[in-house]
Every structure is written in C-alpha cells, then in structure tokens.
Design brief:
By secondary structure, this protein is mostly helical. It has one domain. The chain contains five helices and no strands. Helix 1 packs across helix 4. It is globular, with a radius of gyration of 13 Å.
C-alpha cells in the first residue's frame, strides 16, 4: 500500500483527461532537486537510479516517477493530500517549491 495514495490520485486525475501544464505551472527541475535533497532525502532515495531509500517504507523518486499514469497533476494532488497511514509527513511547501519537486521527480522517468 506504499503507493496507494499516488495510484489513487493518478487514476482519478487520468480519468478526467490529460493534464494541461503551462509554462507558469511547470516547475524548475534543478531547483526541485535541491529542495528534494534538503526536504525529502532523509526518507526517500531522491537521486536518479538510487534504488534504496533511507526509510524502507519510502519509495524512491525513480519508482514514484515510474508509476503508470503519473502526471504533474497526480503528484501535486498526492502531495497536498493527507496520508492516512502517516507514513509520510504532510508537507507544507510553497507552491513554487512543490511544483519544482514534482518537475524533478517526473524528470526521472
């Protein structure tokens, strides 16, 4: 059930049609990598090709990017939704940093 929230968000948003991302909504991959290293690396494997996360219950960013149907909209929804199992803290990032992290994760596809 590690990916349940991401899969659910992906399925719901995929069913509603393709996500439209404008230049204003797209994040900065380099900035996202820096935010991920600072904010996410204690639990997740954030570097491309890094297979094992420090927390065995936290999927690698490469694995998250590889979830079928994973889109910017799906990731944004998942990261802004409470995690019932409390396996991940609820992140409160400024919108630009959130978009940057999502852009970075999706760049690992």
């Amino acid at each position: 059930m590690r990916y349940a929230v991401l899969l659910l968000a992906s399925a719901v948003l995929s069913a509603s049609g393709p996500a439209i991302v404008t230049a204003q909504e797209a994040g900065d991959v380099r900035a996202g990598r820096l935010v991920a290293q600072k904010t996410c690396a204690a639990c997740h494997a954030v570097e491309g090709g890094q297979a094992r996360s420090p927390n065995p219950d936290a999927p690698s960013f490469t694995a998250i990017a590889a979830v079928p149907g994973m889109t910017t909209a799906a990731m944004l929804a998942a990261l802004q939704t409470s995690h019932r199992e409390r396996t991940m803290p609820n992140l409160i990032l400024p919108p630009d940093e959130l978009r940057d992290v999502v852009a970075y994760v999706l760049s690992l596809k």
